[in-house]
Amino acid sequence: MPDQLRIAVPNKGQLAEPASAMLREAGYRQRKDSRDLVLVDPDNQTEFFFLRPRDIAVYVGEGILQAGITGRDMLIDSGAQVEEVLPLGFGASTFRFAARDGASMKLDDLRGKRVATSFAGLLRGYLDEHGIDARVIHLDGAVESAIQLGVADAIADVVSTGTTLRNAGLEIFGDPILESEAVVIRQRDAADDPKLEQMLRRLRGVLVARDYVMMDYDVHAEHLDDAIALTPGMEGPTVSPLHREGWVAVRAMVPRASAQQIMDDLWQIGARAILVTDIYACRL
Ligand SMILES: Nc1ncnc2c1ncn2[C@@H]1O[C@H](COP(=O)(O)OP(=O)(O)OP(=O)(O)O)[C@@H](O)[C@H]1O
Ligand SMILES: O=P(O)(O)OC[C@H]1O[C@H](OP(=O)(O)OP(=O)(O)O)[C@H](O)[C@@H]1O
Ligand SMILES: [Mg+2]
Protein backbone atom coordinates (compact mmCIF):
# COMPACT_ATOMS: atom_id res chain seq x y z
CA MET A 1 0.00 0.00 0.00
CA PRO A 2 1.47 3.42 -0.86
CA ASP A 3 2.05 6.09 1.77
CA GLN A 4 2.01 3.70 4.69
CA LEU A 5 3.94 4.84 7.73
CA ARG A 6 6.57 2.18 8.52
CA ILE A 7 7.63 1.94 12.15
CA ALA A 8 10.17 -0.32 13.91
CA VAL A 9 9.30 -1.77 17.33
CA PRO A 10 11.59 -3.96 19.50
CA ASN A 11 10.61 -7.61 19.02
CA LYS A 12 12.02 -8.88 22.34
CA GLY A 13 14.00 -7.79 25.37
CA GLN A 14 13.35 -5.09 27.94
CA LEU A 15 11.72 -2.62 25.55
CA ALA A 16 9.39 -4.90 23.57
CA GLU A 17 6.42 -5.11 25.90
CA PRO A 18 6.38 -1.49 27.17
CA ALA A 19 6.85 -0.14 23.63
CA SER A 20 3.87 -2.09 22.31
CA ALA A 21 1.80 -1.13 25.37
CA MET A 22 2.48 2.53 24.72
CA LEU A 23 1.58 2.30 21.03
CA ARG A 24 -1.62 0.48 21.97
CA GLU A 25 -2.47 3.27 24.42
CA ALA A 26 -1.89 5.73 21.57
CA GLY A 27 -4.57 3.96 19.54
CA TYR A 28 -2.44 1.74 17.28
CA ARG A 29 -2.93 -1.96 16.67
CA GLN A 30 -0.17 -4.16 18.03
CA ARG A 31 0.61 -7.84 17.54
CA LYS A 32 -1.06 -10.50 19.73
CA ASP A 33 1.48 -13.20 18.97
CA SER A 34 5.04 -12.34 20.05
CA ARG A 35 6.41 -14.29 17.07
CA ASP A 36 4.75 -12.03 14.49
CA LEU A 37 7.31 -10.00 12.53
CA VAL A 38 4.97 -7.51 10.84
CA LEU A 39 1.59 -6.05 11.74
CA VAL A 40 -0.55 -3.84 9.53
CA ASP A 41 -2.80 -1.24 11.14
CA PRO A 42 -5.07 -0.21 8.24
CA ASP A 43 -7.06 2.34 10.27
CA ASN A 44 -3.88 4.34 10.88
CA GLN A 45 -2.20 3.46 7.58
CA THR A 46 0.75 2.22 9.56
CA GLU A 47 2.88 -0.93 9.31
CA PHE A 48 4.83 -2.09 12.37
CA PHE A 49 8.01 -4.15 11.93
CA PHE A 50 9.17 -6.09 14.98
CA LEU A 51 12.98 -6.07 14.95
CA ARG A 52 15.92 -6.54 17.31
CA PRO A 53 16.28 -3.30 19.28
CA ARG A 54 19.93 -3.13 18.22
CA ASP A 55 19.03 -3.25 14.52
CA ILE A 56 16.32 -0.58 14.65
CA ALA A 57 18.67 2.40 14.27
CA VAL A 58 20.18 0.73 11.20
CA TYR A 59 16.82 0.29 9.42
CA VAL A 60 15.76 3.83 10.26
CA GLY A 61 19.18 5.30 9.39
CA GLU A 62 19.07 3.65 5.97
CA GLY A 63 15.69 5.25 5.35
CA ILE A 64 13.90 1.88 5.05
CA LEU A 65 11.56 2.70 7.94
CA GLN A 66 10.46 6.24 8.88
CA ALA A 67 10.88 5.87 12.65
CA GLY A 68 11.41 3.37 15.43
CA ILE A 69 11.65 2.79 19.15
CA THR A 70 14.98 1.75 20.64
CA GLY A 71 17.28 2.59 23.55
CA ARG A 72 19.34 5.80 23.48
CA ASP A 73 22.42 3.64 24.22
CA MET A 74 21.75 1.51 21.14
CA LEU A 75 21.08 4.58 19.02
CA ILE A 76 24.47 6.10 19.93
CA ASP A 77 26.25 2.76 19.68
CA SER A 78 24.98 2.21 16.13
CA GLY A 79 26.52 5.38 14.71
CA ALA A 80 23.55 5.43 12.30
CA GLN A 81 22.27 8.63 10.65
CA VAL A 82 19.35 8.94 13.05
CA GLU A 83 18.18 11.45 15.62
CA GLU A 84 16.28 11.12 18.86
CA VAL A 85 12.89 12.83 18.63
CA LEU A 86 11.03 11.79 21.77
CA PRO A 87 12.15 10.17 25.06
CA LEU A 88 9.50 7.69 26.21
CA GLY A 89 10.09 7.35 29.96
CA PHE A 90 10.63 3.57 30.12
CA GLY A 91 13.62 1.25 29.67
CA ALA A 92 15.71 3.52 31.88
CA SER A 93 19.28 2.37 32.45
CA THR A 94 22.74 3.80 32.89
CA PHE A 95 25.82 2.72 31.01
CA ARG A 96 28.73 2.33 33.42
CA PHE A 97 32.23 1.10 33.95
CA ALA A 98 32.79 -1.72 36.44
CA ALA A 99 35.78 -3.64 37.71
CA ARG A 100 36.52 -6.31 40.32
CA ASP A 101 35.05 -5.36 43.71
CA GLY A 102 37.76 -3.60 45.74
CA ALA A 103 39.93 -2.72 42.73
CA SER A 104 39.14 1.02 43.25
CA MET A 105 39.68 1.77 39.55
CA LYS A 106 39.44 5.25 38.09
CA LEU A 107 38.84 6.31 34.50
CA ASP A 108 42.52 7.22 34.11
CA ASP A 109 43.58 3.72 35.19
CA LEU A 110 42.07 2.37 31.96
CA ARG A 111 44.96 3.63 29.82
CA GLY A 112 46.55 0.65 28.11
CA LYS A 113 43.98 -1.73 29.64
CA ARG A 114 41.29 -3.94 28.06
CA VAL A 115 37.61 -2.98 28.49
CA ALA A 116 34.94 -5.50 27.45
CA THR A 117 31.51 -4.36 26.28
CA SER A 118 28.68 -5.14 23.89
CA PHE A 119 28.42 -1.40 23.09
CA ALA A 120 31.79 -0.91 21.38
CA GLY A 121 30.75 2.19 19.42
CA LEU A 122 29.38 3.96 22.48
CA LEU A 123 32.41 3.03 24.60
CA ARG A 124 34.94 3.98 21.90
CA GLY A 125 33.32 7.39 21.53
CA TYR A 126 33.48 8.02 25.28
CA LEU A 127 37.10 6.88 25.62
CA ASP A 128 38.19 9.02 22.65
CA GLU A 129 36.34 12.03 24.03
CA HIS A 130 38.21 11.61 27.33
CA GLY A 131 41.56 10.90 25.72
CA ILE A 132 41.83 7.40 27.16
CA ASP A 133 43.79 4.99 24.99
CA ALA A 134 42.36 1.58 26.00
CA ARG A 135 41.64 -1.59 24.05
CA VAL A 136 37.93 -2.26 23.49
CA ILE A 137 37.01 -5.96 23.58
CA HIS A 138 33.68 -6.40 21.77
CA LEU A 139 31.46 -9.17 23.22
CA ASP A 140 27.89 -10.06 22.36
CA GLY A 141 26.53 -10.25 25.93
CA ALA A 142 27.08 -11.63 29.45
CA VAL A 143 29.93 -9.13 29.64
CA GLU A 144 30.03 -9.46 33.43
CA SER A 145 32.06 -12.68 33.10
CA ALA A 146 34.82 -11.10 31.01
CA ILE A 147 36.99 -10.02 33.95
CA GLN A 148 36.64 -13.32 35.82
CA LEU A 149 37.56 -15.19 32.65
CA GLY A 150 40.60 -13.00 32.06
CA VAL A 151 39.60 -11.45 28.75
CA ALA A 152 39.34 -7.91 30.16
CA ASP A 153 40.47 -5.70 33.07
CA ALA A 154 37.22 -3.75 33.23
CA ILE A 155 33.80 -3.75 31.58
CA ALA A 156 31.31 -1.15 30.40
CA ASP A 157 27.70 -2.35 30.57
CA VAL A 158 24.05 -1.52 31.03
CA VAL A 159 23.09 -1.15 34.70
CA SER A 160 19.55 -0.92 36.01
CA THR A 161 19.25 -2.12 39.62
CA GLY A 162 22.93 -3.12 39.83
CA THR A 163 22.04 -6.69 40.86
CA THR A 164 23.79 -8.32 37.90
CA LEU A 165 27.07 -6.53 38.68
CA ARG A 166 26.86 -7.27 42.40
CA ASN A 167 26.20 -10.95 41.75
CA ALA A 168 29.28 -11.06 39.52
CA GLY A 169 31.48 -9.55 42.27
CA LEU A 170 31.95 -6.30 40.37
CA GLU A 171 31.72 -2.64 41.41
CA ILE A 172 30.89 0.46 39.42
CA PHE A 173 33.55 3.14 38.98
CA GLY A 174 33.81 6.50 37.26
CA ASP A 175 31.03 8.83 36.16
CA PRO A 176 28.04 7.40 34.26
CA ILE A 177 28.97 7.03 30.59
CA LEU A 178 25.35 7.56 29.53
CA GLU A 179 21.83 7.84 30.97
CA SER A 180 19.58 5.88 28.64
CA GLU A 181 15.87 5.26 28.13
CA ALA A 182 13.61 4.19 25.30
CA VAL A 183 13.35 6.86 22.61
CA VAL A 184 11.65 7.42 19.25
CA ILE A 185 14.22 7.86 16.51
CA ARG A 186 13.95 9.02 12.92
CA GLN A 187 16.32 9.51 10.04
CA ARG A 188 18.41 12.67 10.35
CA ASP A 189 17.29 15.39 7.91
CA ALA A 190 14.20 13.40 6.81
CA ALA A 191 11.33 15.53 5.50
CA ASP A 192 8.39 15.95 7.91
CA ASP A 193 5.75 13.27 7.53
CA PRO A 194 2.23 14.20 8.72
CA LYS A 195 1.46 10.62 9.84
CA LEU A 196 4.67 10.50 11.88
CA GLU A 197 3.90 13.91 13.38
CA GLN A 198 0.49 12.54 14.36
CA MET A 199 2.07 9.48 15.97
CA LEU A 200 4.43 11.71 17.98
CA ARG A 201 1.52 13.90 19.11
CA ARG A 202 -0.34 10.79 20.25
CA LEU A 203 2.70 9.47 22.12
CA ARG A 204 3.22 12.83 23.82
CA GLY A 205 -0.44 12.62 24.85
CA VAL A 206 0.14 9.19 26.38
CA LEU A 207 3.15 10.50 28.31
CA VAL A 208 1.08 13.37 29.72
CA ALA A 209 -1.85 11.07 30.56
CA ARG A 210 0.58 8.82 32.46
CA ASP A 211 2.35 11.63 34.32
CA TYR A 212 -0.58 13.91 35.16
CA VAL A 213 -4.00 13.65 36.81
CA MET A 214 -6.95 16.04 36.70
CA MET A 215 -7.72 17.80 39.99
CA ASP A 216 -11.05 19.46 40.77
CA TYR A 217 -11.89 21.34 43.97
CA ASP A 218 -13.99 24.11 45.46
CA VAL A 219 -12.40 27.02 47.29
CA HIS A 220 -13.49 30.37 48.73
CA ALA A 221 -12.63 33.17 46.31
CA GLU A 222 -10.47 34.91 48.92
CA HIS A 223 -8.08 31.89 48.88
CA LEU A 224 -8.11 31.50 45.10
CA ASP A 225 -4.63 32.99 44.54
CA ASP A 226 -3.06 30.63 47.09
CA ALA A 227 -4.91 27.71 45.53
CA ILE A 228 -3.80 28.59 42.02
CA ALA A 229 -0.20 28.85 43.22
CA LEU A 230 -0.52 25.20 44.26
CA THR A 231 -2.25 24.11 41.04
CA PRO A 232 -1.04 26.39 38.24
CA GLY A 233 -2.08 23.85 35.59
CA MET A 234 -0.59 23.82 32.10
CA GLU A 235 -1.84 27.19 30.86
CA GLY A 236 -3.66 28.38 33.98
CA PRO A 237 -6.49 26.48 35.68
CA THR A 238 -10.16 26.72 34.73
CA VAL A 239 -12.08 28.71 37.37
CA SER A 240 -15.91 28.57 37.33
CA PRO A 241 -18.49 30.25 39.56
CA LEU A 242 -20.30 28.10 42.13
CA HIS A 243 -23.90 28.54 43.23
CA ARG A 244 -22.58 28.85 46.79
CA GLU A 245 -21.92 32.57 47.45
CA GLY A 246 -18.22 33.55 47.43
CA TRP A 247 -16.96 30.12 46.30
CA VAL A 248 -15.44 29.00 43.01
CA ALA A 249 -14.69 25.63 41.39
CA VAL A 250 -11.16 25.05 40.08
CA ARG A 251 -9.92 22.44 37.60
CA ALA A 252 -6.24 21.91 36.79
CA MET A 253 -3.83 19.20 35.70
CA VAL A 254 -1.24 18.31 38.37
CA PRO A 255 1.72 15.90 38.35
CA ARG A 256 0.53 12.46 39.43
CA ALA A 257 3.52 12.03 41.75
CA SER A 258 2.65 15.09 43.87
CA ALA A 259 -1.16 14.77 43.81
CA GLN A 260 -1.51 13.64 47.44
CA GLN A 261 0.74 16.44 48.76
CA ILE A 262 -1.17 19.03 46.73
CA MET A 263 -4.49 17.72 48.10
CA ASP A 264 -3.14 18.08 51.66
CA ASP A 265 -1.94 21.62 50.95
CA LEU A 266 -5.26 22.61 49.32
CA TRP A 267 -7.16 21.24 52.29
CA GLN A 268 -5.01 23.38 54.62
CA ILE A 269 -6.06 26.57 52.81
CA GLY A 270 -9.72 25.61 53.03
CA ALA A 271 -10.38 23.90 49.70
CA ARG A 272 -13.03 21.17 49.83
CA ALA A 273 -14.57 18.53 47.53
CA ILE A 274 -11.10 17.82 46.14
CA LEU A 275 -11.35 15.15 43.45
CA VAL A 276 -8.61 13.50 41.43
CA THR A 277 -9.32 11.64 38.20
CA ASP A 278 -7.18 9.86 35.64
CA ILE A 279 -6.66 11.43 32.24
CA TYR A 280 -7.53 8.80 29.64
CA ALA A 281 -5.93 10.59 26.70
CA CYS A 282 -5.03 14.13 25.68
CA ARG A 283 -3.54 16.45 23.05
CA LEU A 284 -2.01 19.55 24.54
N1 LIG B 1 17.51 -4.30 33.22
C1 LIG B 1 17.12 -3.32 32.42
N2 LIG B 1 16.20 -2.44 32.82
C2 LIG B 1 15.81 -1.44 32.00
N3 LIG B 1 16.27 -1.27 30.76
C3 LIG B 1 17.17 -2.12 30.32
C4 LIG B 1 17.63 -3.18 31.12
N4 LIG B 1 18.51 -3.89 30.41
C5 LIG B 1 18.59 -3.29 29.22
N5 LIG B 1 17.80 -2.22 29.17
C6 LIG B 1 17.63 -1.30 28.04
O1 LIG B 1 16.80 -1.91 27.09
C7 LIG B 1 17.31 -1.70 25.79
C8 LIG B 1 17.38 -3.02 25.08
O2 LIG B 1 18.15 -3.91 25.82
P1 LIG B 1 17.84 -5.45 25.84
O3 LIG B 1 18.67 -6.04 26.91
O4 LIG B 1 16.39 -5.67 25.87
O5 LIG B 1 18.36 -5.85 24.41
P2 LIG B 1 19.33 -6.99 24.02
O6 LIG B 1 20.38 -7.11 25.06
O7 LIG B 1 19.73 -6.76 22.59
O8 LIG B 1 18.37 -8.17 24.01
P3 LIG B 1 18.44 -9.47 24.89
O9 LIG B 1 18.76 -9.04 26.28
O10 LIG B 1 17.04 -10.02 24.75
O11 LIG B 1 19.49 -10.29 24.25
C9 LIG B 1 18.64 -0.99 25.95
O12 LIG B 1 18.44 0.36 25.59
C10 LIG B 1 18.96 -1.06 27.41
O13 LIG B 1 19.54 0.12 27.92
O1 LIG C 1 21.36 -3.81 36.85
P1 LIG C 1 20.41 -4.92 36.60
O2 LIG C 1 19.01 -4.63 37.09
O3 LIG C 1 20.91 -6.23 37.10
O4 LIG C 1 20.20 -5.03 35.00
C1 LIG C 1 21.29 -4.98 34.12
C2 LIG C 1 21.36 -6.20 33.27
O5 LIG C 1 20.17 -6.27 32.46
C3 LIG C 1 20.56 -6.45 31.11
O6 LIG C 1 20.72 -7.79 30.83
P2 LIG C 1 19.63 -8.66 30.06
O7 LIG C 1 18.69 -9.27 31.06
O8 LIG C 1 19.03 -7.89 28.96
O9 LIG C 1 20.54 -9.81 29.48
P3 LIG C 1 21.66 -9.71 28.33
O10 LIG C 1 22.98 -9.60 29.05
O11 LIG C 1 21.51 -10.99 27.59
O12 LIG C 1 21.35 -8.53 27.47
C4 LIG C 1 21.91 -5.77 31.03
O13 LIG C 1 22.67 -6.26 29.94
C5 LIG C 1 22.56 -6.11 32.34
O14 LIG C 1 23.22 -7.32 32.30
MG1 LIG D 1 19.99 -7.38 27.19
UniProtKB/TrEMBL annotation:
<keyword id="KW-0028">Amino-acid biosynthesis</keyword>
<dbReference type="GO" id="GO:0003879">
    <property type="term" value="F:ATP phosphoribosyltransferase activity"/>
</dbReference>
<dbReference type="GO" id="GO:0000105">
    <property type="term" value="P:L-histidine biosynthetic process"/>
</dbReference>
<dbReference type="InterPro" id="IPR018198">
    <property type="entry name" value="ATP_PRibTrfase_CS"/>
</dbReference>
<keyword id="KW-0547">Nucleotide-binding</keyword>
<dbReference type="Pfam" id="PF01634">
    <property type="entry name" value="HisG"/>
</dbReference>
<dbReference type="Pfam" id="PF08029">
    <property type="entry name" value="HisG_C"/>
</dbReference>
<keyword id="KW-0808">Transferase</keyword>
<protein>
    <recommendedName>
        <fullName>ATP phosphoribosyltransferase</fullName>
        <ecNumber>2.4.2.17</ecNumber>
    </recommendedName>
</protein>
<dbReference type="InterPro" id="IPR013115">
    <property type="entry name" value="HisG_C"/>
</dbReference>
<dbReference type="GO" id="GO:0000287">
    <property type="term" value="F:magnesium ion binding"/>
</dbReference>
<keyword id="KW-0328">Glycosyltransferase</keyword>
<feature type="domain" description="Histidine biosynthesis HisG C-terminal">
    <location>
        <begin position="209"/>
        <end position="279"/>
    </location>
</feature>
<comment type="function">
    <text>Catalyzes the condensation of ATP and 5-phosphoribose 1-diphosphate to form N'-(5'-phosphoribosyl)-ATP (PR-ATP). Has a crucial role in the pathway because the rate of histidine biosynthesis seems to be controlled primarily by regulation of HisG enzymatic activity.</text>
</comment>
<dbReference type="InterPro" id="IPR015867">
    <property type="entry name" value="N-reg_PII/ATP_PRibTrfase_C"/>
</dbReference>
<keyword id="KW-0067">ATP-binding</keyword>
<keyword id="KW-0460">Magnesium</keyword>
<dbReference type="InterPro" id="IPR011322">
    <property type="entry name" value="N-reg_PII-like_a/b"/>
</dbReference>
<dbReference type="InterPro" id="IPR001348">
    <property type="entry name" value="ATP_PRibTrfase_HisG"/>
</dbReference>
<keyword id="KW-0963">Cytoplasm</keyword>
<feature type="domain" description="ATP phosphoribosyltransferase catalytic">
    <location>
        <begin position="52"/>
        <end position="205"/>
    </location>
</feature>
<dbReference type="InterPro" id="IPR020621">
    <property type="entry name" value="ATP-PRT_HisG_long"/>
</dbReference>
<dbReference type="InterPro" id="IPR013820">
    <property type="entry name" value="ATP_PRibTrfase_cat"/>
</dbReference>
<dbReference type="GO" id="GO:0005737">
    <property type="term" value="C:cytoplasm"/>
</dbReference>
<dbReference type="GO" id="GO:0005524">
    <property type="term" value="F:ATP binding"/>
</dbReference>
<comment type="pathway">
    <text>Amino-acid biosynthesis; L-histidine biosynthesis; L-histidine from 5-phospho-alpha-D-ribose 1-diphosphate: step 1/9.</text>
</comment>
<keyword id="KW-0368">Histidine biosynthesis</keyword>
<keyword id="KW-0479">Metal-binding</keyword>
<comment type="similarity">
    <text>Belongs to the ATP phosphoribosyltransferase family. Long subfamily.</text>
</comment>
